[in-house]
Amino acid sequence: MECVGSAAVLDLAEGAARLPGGFWAAVGVWLEKPQVANKRLSGAHLEESRAMPRPRSSPAGAGPGGGGPRAASSELDVAWQALRCSSLGPLLLGPGPAHVDALLRTLLPKGRPAPARELVVRDVFNGTVTFLPLEQNHEGKFKIKECNIYQIKLLHRKVNEWSLSVLSPSPENYVSDGIVYPKTTWLGNELLAKLAKWSLETKKCEFKNTLSLISLARYNNSYQNLKEKYKEIVKVWPEVTDPQKFVYEDVAIAAYLLILWEDERAAKGMSSKQSFVDLGCGNGLLVHILSSEGHPGKGVDVRRRKIWDMYGPQTHLESVDPDRRNWVHSTGTYPRTVESRVEWHQSHVWSAPPVSGVVEEGTASDTSGEADPWTQERREYKARFREMQQEMEWLQTWAQNAEVQLTALTNAPARNAPEGGGAAILAFIQGLIGGPLSEVPNPMMEQRLSMLLTVEKEEAWNTFCSSFGRADSTTP
Questions:
Q1: Which is nearest to 101 in space by CA: 52, 165, 32?
Q2: Residue 281: which of 259, 254, 261, 242 has the closest Cα?
Q3: 299 has pLDDT over 90
Q4: Contact between 323 and 342 (Cβ < 8 Å)
Q5: What residues form DSSP beta bridges with 121?
Q6: Side-chain half-sphere of 275: how many Cα atoms within 13 Å?
Q7: Is the distance from CB of 305 to CB of 319 less than 8 angstroms?
Q8: Alpha helices in 126-215 (DSSP H)
Q9: What's the pLDDT at 439?
Q10: In which region does residue 140 sit, left (phi positive, over 0), alpha (psi from -120 to 50) or beta (all else)?
Q11: Which domain of life is it from (predicted)?
Q12: What angle do the packed helices 21-32 and 192-201 form, to 10 degrees?
C-alpha cells in the first residue's frame, strides 16, 4: 500500500480524549453524507451493514481468502465473496479479530452519471476503513475494481499525537472520473484535511436530517427529472435575482415535497393529490412546479412579480396588500392588552378564501374606505417611534451642552463642590456614566442619566446645578 497523503493530528482536548472515537465519527460522516466533502455528489445510500469473517491467507488446498466458497444470500454476501476470491483481502486488512464490519453503499452523483456501488470495510482493530469500488455483470455478480481501491488509516504515534493517511495499492493505475472517483490528490489533501478537522470537532446532532424522511435515491432521481423539465426557465428569467440559485433551489424543494406527499398518500391510502397554500411565495416558481405536477394550490405574496405572467392560468398566484385587507371582525375593535388579544383571536378567526379566489360571504369585508385597527395601531407605533427619536436627539444635544457647561467650571470651582472644583465634578459625572457625555450610546442614555432626568428638562438642569451651589446657571 502506497501513501498518497498524510496529516498529523494533535488531540489536546481536556478531559476525555477525542481520538480514536472522533475518527470513526468523521468516517461515519464520509460514509453517510459524502456530499459535504465532495460537492459533485447528492449523497449516499447505505444498503446493508453486517459483521463479516475477516479474510485470511489461503491454507493449502483452499480457494482465495480461505474457508472455501459459501452460498451468497444477499448483495452484501455477493460483494464479500468477490473480496474473498481475490488476493487483496489479507493485504488490505491484515491480522486481527475474527470479524470486521462490512457495508454496501451506493454513491449518488449529481447530474446524469450512473450511481456507483462500493464495499466498505471497517477494521477497528487496525484503525482502517477500506473502500472497494464494485462492478456488477449481467449475472448479478460483483467484481472489485482494484485500480480504484483506497484506504483511510488512523495511527497512534505517542501520547496525544496521531496521524491520518490515505493509502492506495496502485496510485499510478487509479482512474478518476472527477465525480464518484475523485483524484488521489483530492483524497490525500482535501478529504484528509476535512477528516482531520471532523475527528476533533464532530459532535452528535440531536436533530433528524429531513432527507432521512425520504429515499435519497428517489429524491436524486426526481430532482434530476424536474431540473431537466424546468431548465428553460433559467434562460427566460425576467427578475433581477440569480436564476441559477432560485430556479434550482425551488426545483429541489419541489422534488422533496413530491416524494414526501407520495409516501403520505401511500401510507394513508389516499387517491387524490394534496393541496397547498404558499404564503410569501415570492417569484411563485415553487407554486408553478407543484401545480404543474398535479397538486392544486395557490401562492400569496404582498406584491406581484413580473414572472407571474409567464406561468399561465393553471398557476394560481395572488398579491395581497395587508394594509387594505380587513382582518378584524366588522363589529369589533382591536384589543390593546395581550390577554384580551388572545381572547379576541380565539373568537374572531379569519377564514382564508378558497383557491379559486372567490370570497365566501361573511369571511372578509371590504374596508378600503377606512383603516382597520391593526393598521391604525401600526401608525400609532410609527408616530410614537418618531417622538422617541426626537426625544433621543434632544437628549444627545442636552448631554453635549451639559459637558460644555461642566467643562467651563474647571476654572471656577462652585460653592460646596467637591475638592478640585469643576474638574472633579466633570470627572465624577464621567465616571458615573462610563465616559464623556457625548459618547454615551443612545439606548443607554436614559438609564445612565436617570439622576438628571427625575423632573422636567429645565428643572433637571437647575436641580443638578443647585446641588453644587450654581442655581444661577442657564439651562442647555
A1: 52
A2: 254
A3: yes
A4: no
A5: 102, 130
A6: 10
A7: no
A8: 184-186, 192-201
A9: 54
A10: left
A11: Eukaryota
A12: 120
Mean pLDDT over all residues of the chain?
75
Task: From 79, 45, 28, select the one nearest 221 (Cα to Cα).
Answer: 45
CB 45 within 8 A of CB 217: yes
3 state SS of 46: strand
- Beta strands 150-158 and 142-144 are unpaired
CA 177 to chain centre: 30
152: nearest Cα among 215, 198, 86, 220: 198
Q: How many angstroms separate the CA atoms of 256 and 177, rounded? A: 28
Pick the closest to residue 351 from 341, 340, 359 (CA basis).
359
Q: Between β-strands 317-319 and 297-301, what pairing exists: parallel, antiparallel or unpaired?
A: parallel
pLDDT of 244 strictly over 90: no
Residues 21-53: pLDDT tens digits? Answer: 899 999 999 999 999 999 999 889 899 999 999
- Which has the closest alpha carbon to 75: 160, 162, 141, 151? 141
Are 282 and 307 in contact by the 8 Å Cβ rule? The answer is no
Residue with cell 455477493: 78
Q: What is the crossing angle of helices 285-292 and 243-268, to 10°? A: 40
Buried b (16+ CB within 10 A) or exposed e, 204-237: eeeeeeeeeebebbebbbbbbebbeebeebeeeb
What are the start-end ranges of the E strands in 189-283? Answer: 276-279
Confidence label for 110 from pLDDT (cuts 50, 70 and 90): confident
> Concatenated DSSP letters for 348-367?
-PPPPPPTT-PPPTTT--B-
Query: Three-state SS across 103-122?
Result: EEEEEEECCCCCCEEEEEEE
Write down the pTM of the prediction. 0.56
* Cell triple for 390: 426626537
Beta bridge partners of 163: 8, 155
The three cell numbers locating residue 219: 429524491
Task: Specify which of 9-23, 240-254, 435-449 reaches the highest per-range mean pLDDT.
Answer: 240-254
Mean pLDDT lowest among 51-55, 155-159, 427-431? 427-431
Q: Which residue has the cell 378584524?
A: 328
